[in-house]
Every structure is written in C-alpha cells, then in structure tokens.
Specification:
The complex is a heterodimer of chains A (149) and B (650). Chain A is of the alpha/beta class. Helix content of chain A is 42%, strand content 19%. Chain A has a six-stranded parallel beta sheet, with helices on both faces. In chain A, strand 3, helix 3 and strand 4 form a beta-alpha-beta unit. The two termini of chain A are 19 Å apart. Chain B is built from 19 helices and 22 strands. In chain B, the strands form four sheets. In chain B, strands 2-1-7-6-5-3-4 form a seven-stranded antiparallel beta sheet. In chain B, strand 18, helix 17 and strand 19 form a beta-alpha-beta unit. The radius of gyration of chain B is 50 Å and the shape is elongated. Chain B starts with 10 loop residues before the first helix and ends with a helix. Classes of the chains: A alpha/beta (149), B alpha+beta (650). At the A-B interface, helix 4, strand 6 and helix 6 of A face helix 11, helix 12, helix 17 and helix 19 of B.
Amino acid sequence: MTTETPKSGATPISVAVVDDNRLIGQSVERWIAGDAGFAFLGAYTSTAEAAAALVGQRPRVLLLDLDMPGSDTLKFLADAFARYADMRVVMLSGRSQSPQISRALDLGAAGYIVKDEGMSAIMAMIRRAAGGQVVLSSTAKGALTYGPA
Amino acid sequence: MAVAFDGELSSDAATTIQPRHFRALVDSLAAAIYTTDIQGRVTYCNRSAVELWGREPVLGDDQWCGSWRIYRPDGSPLAIDQCPMAVSIREGRSIRGEEIVVERPDGTRRNVLPHPDPIRDCSGNIIGAVNMLVDITDRRTIERALSQSQERLQVVFNQAAVGITLMDQHGRILEANERACQIVGRDLARLRACNCRDLVHPDDWASNESMLRQVIEGRRKEFVIEKRYLRGQLPEAWVWVSVAFTGLLDDRGHPHRLIAVIEDITERKLFREELERHTRERTAELERAQRSLREGERLAALGTLSAGLGHDLANLLLPLRGSLDTLESTTSPPTPEQLATEVGAIRRGLDYLQRLSAGLRLLAVDPASRPSAIERTMLGAWWTETEGVLRAVLLRGAALDARIAPDLPPVNIARAALTQAVFNLVQNAAEAMDGAPNSVVSLAAERAPAAADGRPRVRITVSDNGPGMTTEAFARCFEPYFSTKQRAIATGLGLSLVRTHIVGAGGTISCESTPGGGVRFIIDLLASDEDVLSAMPPMTARVAVHSPRTAALATALLEALHIDVVAEGPLDSIDLLVVQSASALDLRQFDDDKRGPAAVVLQAPASLTDSLAHHDRIVFCGENPNTRTLQAAFERAATILRSNRRRDDH
C-alpha cells in the first residue's frame, strides 16, 4: 500500500493518544509536530480521561493502548466504535498475541500496531487508518498469520 | 413260526386274494397283529407282534395277548384279563384310544395303542377278536422331551434376569415374563393391553420405529437399541433399557412375531455417566496441573533469563547513554560524522532491544493456543529475533556458538514452539555445564536427509561440551516429571515439553550423550517446499463486499497473508474473490477442473454451505463471520490455491 501525502491546504489528520505511559504520548506528539499533515489533539492516561475529552472534541485517529491499569480498554473501544462513526480507533500495544488482535478488530478497531514499530511506519499507518483502511503493523501481521517472519 | 389263521374274509377279498397270500401280507406288516378265539386264546400273531412283546406266545395257550406284563400309562399294573382285547371280546365292541404299556421279559417297556375289534361269524356271533398294536414309544419319547424342553424354556422365561416380551407384527404385547413386568412396573394383564409404543419415550420412538419396521418387513433379522421405557404410569419415571428385537418367521418365512429381550441398564447408564463426569473432572484437573507445572517451568526459567537479560541490558544501556552524553556534551554542534557515529550506535542498541522484545514475546506465547495457524518458520529471521533471548539465558562464562546455514527452506513449526523448544535445550545445556570454564553451547541448523516420503527436512542440533548425562538421566530424559535439577521449582517438564512441541509439528527429536563429552539433541523438522512457492507469482484478491469496514478488515487480513488486494482488473487475472454472498458468484466458474479463482463467501446459511460443498474452491465463513473465521477462511483459500498452483507446476 502506498502512503498518501496530504495535499497542501488539506485538513491535517487530528491524532490523540490514550496510554498510561506518558512517554508514548510525548513521542507521538514530538514526532508529528514537524509534519503539517497531522495535528496533535492530546494525550490521555486513562480511558475515563479520554472519554471525558472526546465529548468536546474528537480526533480523526485515536491511538489506544490495550493494557492500562484501571481501564477497560476493550469496552471503551466498543463504545467509541458505536458512538463516534467519524473517529478511527487504532490499538497501539506492547502485546502481540493473536487473540487480543482478533478481539480488538472484532470490536471495531481500525488497526493494531505493536509498539516495536518505527515512528515513520506508525505515521503511515495512521494516515491509512484515517483514510478508512484497517491497518496491521508487521508484528501484528506475523502474530495473526504465524507466517514467515 | 407256527401260524394259524381262521378269520373270515369278505367275499370280494376272497375272490381276489388267496388266504395264503393274505397271511403272508399280514405277516410282513410293520404293525403288530394278532387274533384270539372267543376264549381269548391267541390263535395268530405276526412277526411284528412277536418283536413288540419280546417273546413268542404259545398259540392256543396264551390268553388275551402275548405280553409278558402290561401296565396303565401311569405305571400301575393292569391284569391281562383287563386288557383292551379282553374287554373288546367280553363287551363285543371295538376299543380305541386306550394306551397301555407292554413290558417285555427283558424288562424293557413299550408304549402301545391297541386297536381290538371283535370277529363275528355269518350270524353275527362273536367268535374271536383281532388286535392291531401300534407302538408309539418313539412318539411318546419325543413328546416327553418336548414337554421337558418346554418346561425348561418356561422356567428360563419366567426366571430370566432379563425381561422378555412376545409381540405380534403390530407391536401388541402377547406375552411377557415377570422381569419384563418389573422393568416397566405393570402386571401381565396391563402389559398385555399395551402396544410396545406405549412404553417408549417419545424422543426415542422414531429410531425404534424405523428399525422395528425393517424387522417386520423382513429387511432386517434383529437389532439392539438403547432407549427409555416408562416405568408405571408416572410420566417422569423413565428407565433406561437395552432391547434386542428378533423377528420370528411364520411357515411361509414371513416375520409374524417379535421377541424383545429387555435389559434394565439404568444403573449402568448412570454409572457410565458418573464415570464420564469423573473422567472429565480428572482430565480438567490434570490439565490444570499440567498448566500449572508448565507455568512453574517458565517461572524457573525466568530466574535465569532475568539475570541474563539484566546483564545484557546493562551492557546495552552504557553505550546508549554514552552516545547520548557525547551528543549532549558537545559544546559545538556535532559534525555530520560524529552525528552518524552516535546515531548509528543508538540505532544498533535499539535494534537489539527490538529483537530482544520479539524473542521474549515468542517465549510468552502458548503454541497450543494457535491450532489453525500456518506454521512455518524462516530460520534466519527466527534466529535474528531469538538470538538475544537465547544468549541471555546462558550462565556467565558460557558461549553460544550458532551456525545457521543460509538458504534453508522454512520449517513446519510455529516460531513460538521452536523458540521454546530451543530455549529449553540451551538453558538445560547451560545449567548442566554450571559455569565451567570454556563452556560452549552449539546451535546448528542445516539441511537433513529427506523424509521417507521425499519431503525436505532441516536438522537443528543443540549440543554442549559439558559432563554428559548419567545412564538413568539419558534413559529417562524425555519422561514428564523426570528432572535432575536441584532448584526449588524443578518440574521436570522441560524436555517433555520440548518433545511435545517437536512431535506436534511432525518432527522428531533424539538425544546422544557421551560421559565427559557432552550432550547433543538432534531435531529433524519437515520443511516447506518453499522453492516452488517462492517461484510462484504473488496471489491477488478482489474484495467485493458491501460494508466498507468489512472490506477494510478483509483487505488487512489478506495483506497479512501476503495476498495483494486489487480494486479492478479482469476476473481471470484474480486468484481469490471475496464476496458477501454466494449469489454474487457465477457458480459455473467453479464447476470445472481445478484451474481458476477461489472464492471466499462471507455470509452463508448452513443449508447453502451444504449444497455448494462440492465446489472445493469456494470457502464459507459461516453465518456471522468475525476476524478469526475470516482469517481462517482466507488461509484455507490460500492453501487451496497454493496446492493447485503447485500441482499445475508439476
């Protein structure tokens, strides 16, 4: 698949991050700060915090960590998928077990990115998810298919 | 033999048969014949009479008959002058149907039916009598045997531990023994008023009826069925029975009666169910215990691994921090060369960390949780991922010497299973050498001789230069729960699990041990025919489904399987067509030989799935597909296509 380069004047893709590890949010924010094709909307450390923020403004792509203490992320995912049709939720997780990936996709995730991916590849996948595609990082693909590494 | 015959003959007979001829005829009859005069003195007897009596009477002297002694059928003595012949002469009448028993001089007895008739002269006066004695001893013997047999049968019928019923061809109960009455809780009169259908549980009747009909129609001789009978009248009182039905034939060979032998198996059934429940519970307990032991084994490994990882990470952190310090402490901006050197060092560190992370994930996966996956591993890429973890598990001082031959075909085993197997072997080797100087664990992967069916194989060997195994350890090393380790959580499942992983993937594992010369494990794995596959052009698919979300998901899953998704192009250039329902397919395309595209139908009712089952290039996802069923369907379709391509290539 090819990466789309936003045309000048096109609306930047708004991105928010939900991860209890603040470093992840900061990394994403720093990386897209230099790209006019993206706009960073915010970083939240729990699903409750994110749910409250989404009432006001919603990103086009929400990166959601799977494992956060005190947060039922899969319920949050299902609710967000049902409620906000214009928002794409992409899982961003350190886990790469096939059952978790399948479950997230069943609940409406627009993709599954394992955190071992490089930042530029992550940005490309965010663009594709914003365009309506379902994206899988290479480790997620490997976990799903168990094919040649 | 002296014979005299003075009987009257009818005029007709006299004209045609001469008396001497007549005498010869009577002499030769198989029936015993004799005559007496009016005083009862025997005047004639034939050979058969002599044989019956067992003696030759003195003609003109023996009276009434030639018997030695005679008895009534009940065995009580009968005076000779009371014999039927004497009565016939005295009373001037024929006597029929009065059985007597004749005793011979040798003591043997014969059952006899006498047929005495008076002989009259022309004036009608009785001048004597003729008697025919019919020997019915054989008949009586058979009748007695039959009667005894029937008595025995009746005893068996009444006392049988199983219930027996006799039915007509309509299933109406004609006879039943006591046990049958007990089983169904009804007395004989009430049972006789029943049809067998009245006794059977409604859910069990259909199968029972069809087999009964086959017996009644003569298409089947017998059958046995397990079903429920109603005990008594209570609707909830069901009893489990095993019933053997046999058809009885009439004279024309048609089944006209049915015999049912009924065994009450309620207790056996309950016992069996109880046993099955116990077995299930014990199996579940065993599985839990195995899981727990496996976890224990992992925990045990975790200690060693953590120590190794801590050491490796510390070694990694130092240069990383050093590179960052260098970049930060430079008073002037770094030169491009400096930048390239330090960034390169940081990136190498990160690459290592990434591989370590991948390797650790492979150790965490339970291979048993992925039964339907495509299980192929490229050993070169696998080694890159797992090298860090495998080195981390070595104790201090031990080296890992790895030689992975280039251009090996992919092996048929899940990466996680292979990683865990090799991890166990390397860890065992490292522990056996216990940090001795110059300890080396060697890992080698190379092509092995082909399997018996010609399929290529790859051999992986893990060896060490430690002390080797004891004879007992060598003999038992693959047994579950056998361990030589002294640590607190030594479950002994390590090598047993290794073998489970390898054998489960269709491979073999063996072990060689030399005292003082180390241990060598040899794993032979089947390899994929990758040369053929890699030479094939990539597969393409077209996704034609309504829902954009489903289309996007299908596309992502197909790409994960290395299948290119195209939006348009002629249909004959497509390998796989993904459609919402079978109505979108031109089924004629799937009728011909194996050439042509495969199709995955996302939604199909079970009835349609059955009717199109003969199209082996159409794969169905079921009625409510999810990620797993979609992926399984794509994998299945890809397998079919690959197999067809491979065959075409050959």
